[in-house]
Specification:
The complex is a heterodimer of chains A (about 140) and B (about 350). With about 140 residues, chain A is an alpha+beta fold. Helix content of chain A is about 30%, strand content about 40%. Classes of the chains: A alpha+beta (about 140), B alpha/beta (about 350). The complex binds zinc ion.
Chain lengths: ~140, ~350
Amino acid sequence: MCRITQEPIDVRALEAKVAGASNGAVLTFVGQVRNHSRQREVAYLEYNAYIPMAEKQMRKIAAEAKARWGVDVAIEHRIGRIELQEASVVICVGSPHRAEAFEACRYCIDTLKETVPIWKKEVCPDGAFWIEGEDAIQAQP
Amino acid sequence: MPTAGGLSNSLTGGKEIGCTAVQLFTGSPRQWHHPPLDPEVAAKFRQTQAETGIAVAVAHDSYLINLAAPDPDILDRSRKAFRRELDRSEMLGLPWVVTHMGAHLDSGEEAGIALLIESTRAILEETEGMQVGIAMETTAGQGTGLGYRFEQIARVLEGAGAHPRLGVCLDTCHIFVAGYDIRDEESYQKTFAEFDRLIGLDRLKVIHANDAKKPLGSRVDRHEHLGEGEIGIETFRLLVTDPRLKNIPIIIETPDSETMHAVNLAKLKRLAAGGSLGMRVTVRFFGHYSDFSPDGMEVSVPGGATVASLSAILAEKDGRLAGIERHCRAAVNEEYVAPDAVLQEGDEVAFIPPMSGG
Ligand SMILES: [Zn+2]
């Protein structure tokens, strides 16, 4: 249900994982690569992860959402080179009711950004930058 | 080393785990009387020592012997038993019999030391011409035990006329619980300077390397594995790299001898070889730090090292890693931990800069 992948994410397949018969709502959040950041033009992104720990943290998030809202959660995060408008992360929440689905989904993406060890490198026309929280640090070529 | 199956087995057992020095009881340490040593046994021991190449074997006397006993009967028995200790060790060709300095048993330290001097003089006189010497061991100062201050040992030495067959055995656990700090370079040097001033390092003939289960000054004698007790591994590194002590045999008297002597001995050897002892941990870097070390690194850290002390070691290795502990959270084996988390052999430590997933 939760994994890091090198491949483009199959959103429909991920939704199917949480679309059990008792769930009246399936909510999908897709994070995609945008063409600008910090007033710079972005060519593409390169994601890196501490894969085993990242997957462990993602499973923790899904378990916590299940415990709090009774929802089913599937999360996939892609790493490697990702082009503009491609999905970097997809979170699918299946829930008997929509209110819990919205709340849980927001919790999942917010917590993922805080605790799942994944980093992006923004590759711009004038160089590449590691994004570490608020900081952008010039990457070594 | 254990002597079960014959005295020579202490040598072969020692050889098996890589000892160059061993200590043994030449008789059961909890008995007054032993049958006289069979000259054949002694000959076999000497031959085995030559074969195994164990450079030094020393004896430890029976626990029953109290050369400061106020009871004249016990004192007499003790002197006779100690005399036989010397006889046996002489036959075996051992240079030293290590002895605890006895206990005054409420007769007072002054009276105890006076008796000890008298006993020592008498025994040395009786055994004149022998090669084997008496190594008085520094003690923990439990109960009414004597010899927990260097001054006391110095007085006995002096009282016995600074006889050339008198030496001293320094036990790291004992002096530490007796109140001599040796935990870092400064305190170690201070304690050894005091030993040198009061007793003289030339009198130091045997070292017992033991860590202590009980704290400094507790006067409770419980030995612990090297680096796992109150003293810590640094002291043992100082000990085995101290040029003044180069030719002094070091004996380990830690628990679980059958399984752990080899481990403790290996620690000393690594320390002596300049190894920073300890544990190997794998360190992984992410974010911009991964540009400096994309595959991470194997680092050896001292026993008891924490995430914070590891960070300091990393900063020394590569200046670009300085301050990594402030910029990053740490994870050990894929779980977030606090900077004071203690590391274990084989741990994977990851430095996690602020994240940017999503
Ligand atoms: Zn000892």
